[in-house]
Amino acid sequence: MRTLSATCVSIAVALRNDTLRLVERPSRFGDTFVAIEDAFGVIEVALTWAEANARVASIRERVGA
User: Any idea where the domains of the chain sit in the sequence?
Assistant: First the structure.
C-alpha cells in the first residue's frame, strides 16, 4: 500500500507548478534550518540541506516529477 501525507502532496504540487524553493533560515537557537516552501509559504522544515534535498528527491521520484 502507498500513502502520501498532506505535506508530500503539497511538495508534489509545488514541484509540478515550479514554485518549490528551499530557503535557509535562522533558528531561534542560533543555528539554521531549511524551509521547504511554495508560493503560499512554508510546507515543511528540515534541519540540514541534505535532509531537505533528500525529502524533495524522494517525493520527486514517487510522483515522477
Answer: 6-63
